[in-house]
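Project outcomes to date are best conveyed with an example. Our students and postdoctoral researchers have been running inverse folding experiments weekly, and each run begins with a structure described purely in tokens. The record below, which covers 142 residues, was selected by the lab manager from last quarter's runs and is presented without edits.
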């Protein structure tokens, strides 16, 4: 559990434009200010998934009322992707991160080409979700 606290706090600290104090008793939402926002939190969770090799459930992204210690405890119960499936898991998650970044860049554009690209990105997200669900199904069965 300490591994998750340390890794997560390091990821958050890396994104923060001001240094903060992190302890297991720190409430996540209390970390948010002009130097560290919820987008930084979400990016850190995505990176944590790659580092630790697990899929963080969507509902955990909304639990910013937890302390870092409580959050780490939740993370410690998530099954880890087996080594033989990790390359595909990494590819899916990393591709999703790149697509999300591109989608955000296009969000405020209304030209036909940008809208078309956003549709293609959404289709790719669906494909990646399908691949991830199959992969996670294999993890939960084993």
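After processing, the design step wrote out the following sequence:
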């Amino acid at each position: 559990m300490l591994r998750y606290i340390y890794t997560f706090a390091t990821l958050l600290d890396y994104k923060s434009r001001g240094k903060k104090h992190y302890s297991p008793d720190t409430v996540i939402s209390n970390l948010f200010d002009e130097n560290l926002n919820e987008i930084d939190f979400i990016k850190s969770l995505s990176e944590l998934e790659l580092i630790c090799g697990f899929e963080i459930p969507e509902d955990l992204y909304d639990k910013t009322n937890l302390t870092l210690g409580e959050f780490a405890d939740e993370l410690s119960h998530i099954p880890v992707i087996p080594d033989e499936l990790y390359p595909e898991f990494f590819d899916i998650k990393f591709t999703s991160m790149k697509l999300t970044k591109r989608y955000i860049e296009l969000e405020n554009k209304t030209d036909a080409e940008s809208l078309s690209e956003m549709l293609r990105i959404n289709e790719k997200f669906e494909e990646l979700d399908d691949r991830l669900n199959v992969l996670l199904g294999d993890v939960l069965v084993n």
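DSSP finds five helices and no strands in the chain. Residues 86-141 form one domain. The training component of this project remains on track.
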